[in-house]
Amino acid sequence: MLDQDKRTGEVVPWLATRWTYQDEGKTLVLRLRDGVTFSNGERFDAASVKANFDALAVYAREGRAPQASGYLTGYLGADVLDPLTVALRFDHPKAGFLQALTEKTLAPLAPATLAKTPEERCQGALIGTGPFVIAQVVKNDRIVLKRRADYQWASPNAEHQGPAWLDQVTFQTVSEGSVRVGSLISRQVGAIEEIPTEDVQRVKAAGASVVARSAGGIGITLYPNIASPVLSHPEVRQALVIGVNRAEIIEALYTEYDKAATSVVSTTVPGYFDLSAKLAYRPDAARALLERAGWKAGKDGIRSRDGQRLQVGVTWSFPGYTPTLELIKEQLARIGVDLRLNLRSDAEIGGVIRSGNYDLRLSDLTRPDPDVILAAFSSKFGRGLGAAEPALDALLDQQSVAVDPARRKDLVAQVQNLIIDQGYAVPIKESNTVFAVAPDVRGLWLSTPRWPVLHDTWLAAAR
């Protein structure tokens, strides 16, 4: 219902034209845009907004909407104040909820869709307020969208306010990277995502342009389990932070469109605080930390203390991260750490994390709001650090209820500094979205989270 400015990340009006906090931030009153309809003709109004949130809250309680559950913690209900004004009530202030209203998870659905089961919706029975409608869904193959001719309420980020320029868009599933590249070069498709690193220059040489953006959130990061015997020692965690050479990783494995991490969150998250100095590669300082903590180098270079080798396991499930971790293994060996690689399947990794039987885990998390740190690190939200860290939990809670922007910004800076100072994260690189776009495709841009926006896209040959 809201959007984020694609340049600054600031929350801006869209389907809700203005908002106010009441009851010390526990109630959010939204004034809705007049004249908006769902694509089946049903009216977008306060009653439909209430129906959407009430339905989502039920699914959240049942465990059927995990992402919405995080956004709707403390939701008490919604009140229709008039046809275009709705009040959302919570049991505590929700500083990050305005940004949550920009997320697709909370996008309003037509009353006719709310009457469908989740299973029916997954087959494509979705009716929204956007510039396209779903025309066809073929599982594991394609999704076809068609233009909505009467669309007149685009985001302020858009380049125009009328209907989309394209008549139809087909999202085609092509799992093999080389096939995607070949399809683009031969003009069988107009754009592709996830370009293999080795093919970037080939794509550009063929006349395609590249559209890239850092994903708002936490990039590729190593999270320590501070309850594990070896990583319960802050010196070891701190040595890992400065023992990783991020610049070498980017140069060796990634492209000009990738960025090394410079903080806990990416540069596109409001409240980002530059900690590049604290993340600088300092292998000598890392070795000194380990020496002072009693970890002495052996003949093979790997350190040990009291007969225990400095072995640290890392668990992850996405095979695409393997080359990155193999290089990190080489880097950490230079400071005397033996990194053991434990690739698990998607089905296995959740159980491993829940069991606590790991040292490090590697993942990323997308959400362009400081509450992404709350979701990733708080002991209240599952994975966290493997054990509660009261000082960090307290700061995370304070920022999450700080509806004053200046106060929240200060708290978020404190959080980021604390995480790096204590070695509660080893940020590696910013996650990003990269599209290669055919020469005749114009106007495709990426939103603040990372998603392609097609409302302004057009074909040069068609205009």
Automatic annotation (TrEMBL):
Keyword Transport part of the UniProt annotation: yes
UniProt-listed PANTHER family: OLIGOPEPTIDE-BINDING PROTEIN APPA (PTHR30290:SF9), PERIPLASMIC BINDING COMPONENT OF ABC TRANSPORTER (PTHR30290)
Name of the protein described by the UniProt record: Nickel-binding periplasmic protein
Pfam family, one: SBP_bac_5
Keywords linked to the UniProt accession: Signal, Transport
GO terms classed as biological process: peptide transport
A GO term from the CC aspect: outer membrane-bounded periplasmic space
Signal peptide (residue range): none
Keyword Signal belongs to the record: yes
Occurrences of domain Solute-binding protein family (ranges): 10-380
A molecular-function term among this protein's GO annotations: peptide transmembrane transporter activity
Family: Belongs to the bacterial solute-binding protein 5 family.
